[in-house]
Amino acid sequence: MDVIEQFDVLVPAFERVAEGTGRDALDSPTPCAEWVVRDLFGHLTGGATTFAAAIRGEDAPEPPTPTDDTIATTTVAAVSSLDKAFRGPGALEQIVSTPFGELPGEVFARILAFDLLMHTWDLARSTGQEVDVPDEVVHAVDGFARQAISAEMRGPHTFGPEVEPPAGASALDRLAAFSGRTP
């Protein structure tokens, strides 16, 4: 499954969960160490804003500073902009300067697909929602992640040390465990 097909599913899944997040949940803890929902939205907004500019070959603008009432829609807009950047001419074929070094656009897109899926899972867990992503997409993201995520890429706000998933865990929960989350 190509990465744009993954984004075709992952971006709307994130949008549903983000739009289902009430203002009263912004200070709820997340599976990401030391982050509450507000921090998770900030991380996604900042990363998507910066990375979309990098993919388009532009200087990164300052990420928007939303209010509590606009934080979810601001993050959805930033993720949408990132999605559009990856769909631009030559975006997947170019070399992009990333926090993990210089990477082909397609490889970076796949890393960000994994990151988006995991942060959608984080947000859903934090707010009592479900993530609606077909197992086919989860398996495609998982296959790439297990080959690409090195020990150097793991950290408290990205992908922690792998944990053992519970017996009978879903494909998405197994991927969450691989990324260091406790399903």
Helix tally equals: 6
User: Which CATH class is shown?
Assistant: Mainly Alpha
The radius of gyration is: 15 Å
Strands of the largest sheet, in order across it?
1-2
CATH topology: Four Helix Bundle (Hemerythrin (Met), subunit A)
Query: Could you say what the CATH architecture is?
Result: Up-down Bundle
> What can be said about the biggest beta sheet?
2 strands, antiparallel
Q: Which structural category fits the helices and strands?
A: mainly alpha
Strand content: under 5%
CATH superfamily placement: dinb family like domain
Distance between the termini: 25 Å
What does this structure look like?
This protein is mainly alpha-helical. It has one domain: dinb family like domain (Four Helix Bundle (Hemerythrin (Met), subunit A)), CATH 1.20.120.450. It contains six helices and two strands. It has a two-stranded antiparallel ribbon with strand order 1-2. It is globular. The model has no long low-confidence stretch (mean pLDDT 94).
From the structure above, extract its key features.
single chain; 183 residues; mainly alpha; Four Helix Bundle (Hemerythrin (Met), subunit A); two-stranded antiparallel ribbon; 6 helices; 2 strands; 4% strand; globular
Question: Mind sketching the topology for me?
Answer:
Elements: H1 3-19, H2 37-56, H3 71-86, E1 95-98, E2 101-104, H4 105-127, H5 135-148, H6 171-178
Antiparallel strand pairs: 1-2
Brief rundown of the structure:
With 183 residues, this protein is mostly helical. The protein is 54% helix and 4% strand. The protein is built from 6 helices and 2 strands.
